[in-house]
Design brief:
By secondary structure, the chain is α/β, with parallel strands linked by helices. The chain has two domains: 209 residues, 3-Layer(aba) Sandwich (Rossmann fold), CATH 3.40.50; 118 residues, OB fold (Dihydrolipoamide Acetyltransferase, E2P) (Beta Barrel). Helices cover 29% and strands 32% of the residues. The chain contains ten helices and 19 strands. The strands form four sheets. An eight-stranded mixed beta sheet has the order 2-18-19-17-16-13-14-15, sandwiched between helices. The N and C termini lie far apart (57 Å). It is an enzyme of class 2 (transferase). GO terms for molecular function: tRNA (uracil(54)-C5)-methyltransferase activity, S-adenosyl methionine-dependent. It holds the Pfam family tRNA_U5-meth_tr. Keywords: Methyltransferase, S-adenosyl-L-methionine, Transferase, tRNA processing.
Length: 362
């Protein structure tokens, strides 16, 4: 057995070193020191996936050390996980070990929790899930008071729901977010809130409109809609677009449209290279875009999208990969200067760094 613990005494030191490395990496483009947004030192992860390791007829949670993917180590405490996750983990494992039906051919368990106290547990199997499994899973669901979801090849068994509802307070207002299992959500809730607050501060109040690419479930989009006259956002994932539409309705937002387009497709649309039926009800010429927000995947912005966003007076660029952001800055710095620079410590005690830049046309 092992306890997945971290040495919190080292936290400020590791954050300082991250900031130093980031400042050095961006020195070519800015002399600004990054604004630092620290994470809670423990219980910061809202979602996690564990391998289920079977030994002697007993199931255990297990994880892999980096570079040792054939040698899992068994854990019985996960201090970086949320308090609710740590509360649920032993209860779920006990139920699994008390039921051959739940335990047999189970290979993974996923926990999705929220700051507002909701949770979803997904059990993933190498077997067909039948009525007997559903009955056992229902009993566990009733005991926990949180939904259980079953997955197997070409199977998804929803006993109650396949999502959690998050509630975040931003500038004194409560925002509701539906977060669907399997879709992208920010893993560190406190840092997510810091990122939204920083983005609202960086944008300020505007008489113009906002374009957002890679909007996900509306995480940034919905709070930022208060700062602009109109907002148009794009996202390629159907699940995320559907969640975003529900989140728009749940939060009473009326000045925001979301369309299912990739960044490459939107570049073609705004350049009038070709029409898209998904934009049939959207008059792009009616928007007075002054700001574009991008939060791309680790690969960063492709060349055409990078050239397109460079036309905007202001670019708010959130990145989970400074290397690709720096590569994009080779083009963007030709037309824009960095006015705000932030470091968000999404994953403490790792080398991972997330950044925020506000770029303003020179």
């Amino acid at each position: 057995m092992a306890l997945y613990r971290v040495n919190t005494d080292d936290y400020q030191d590791q954050l300082h070193k991250k900031a130093q490395r980031l400042s050095e990496a961006y020195r070519e483009f800015t002399s600004l020191q990054p604004e630092l947004f620290p994470s809670p030192p423990i219980h910061y992860r809202l979602r996690a996936e564990f391998k289920v390791w079977h030994e002697g007829g007993v199931a255990h949670y297990a994880m892999y050390r980096q570079g040792e993917y054939k040698k899992p180590f068994i854990i019985d405490e996960f201090t970086v996980g949320s308090k609710l996750m740590n509360q649920l983990m032993p209860q779920v494992l006990e139920a699994i070990n008390n039921s051959e039906v739940l335990r047999k051919r189970l290979f993974s368990a996923e926990f999705l929790t929220t700051l507002s106290g909701d949770a979803l547990i997904t059990l993933i199997y190498h077997k067909k899930l039948d009525e007997e499994w559903a009955q056992e899973a229902h009993a566990l669901q009733d005991k926990l008071g949180f939904p259980i979801l079953g997955r197997s090849r070409k199977q998804k068994v929803i006993l109650e729901r396949d999502y959690v509802t998050e509630q975040l307070e931003i500038d004194g207002r409560q925002y509701l977010y539906k977060q669907v299992e399997g879709s992208f959500t920010q893993p560190n809730g406190d840092i997510c809130r810091s990122m939204i607050l920083w983005a609202k501060s960086a944008c300020g109040k505007n008489e113009s409109d906002l374009l957002e690419l890679y909007c996900g479930n509306g995480n940034f989009t919905i709070p930022l809609s208060e700062n602009f006259q109109k907002v148009l956002a794009t996202e390629i994932s159907k699940v995320s677009v559907n969640s975003a539409q529900e989140n728009i309705h749940a939060n009473g937002v009326t000045n925001l449209n979301i369309v299912r387009l990739s960044s490459e497709e939107f570049t073609q649309a705004i350049d009038k290279v070709r029409p898209f039926r998904r934009l049939a009800d959207i008059d792009l010429d009616s928007y007075n875009f002054n700001t574009v927000l991008v939060d791309p995947p680790r690969a960063g912005l492709d060349e055409d999208t990078c050239a397109m966003v460079a036309r905007f007076p202001r670019i708010l660029y959130i990145s989970c990969n400074p290397e690709t952001q720096l590569d994009n800055l080779k083009l963007l710095s030709q037309t824009h200067r960095i006015e705000r620079f932030a470091l968000f410590d999404q994953f403490p005690y790792t080398d991972h760094t997330e950044t925020g830049l506000l770029l303003v046309r020179k």
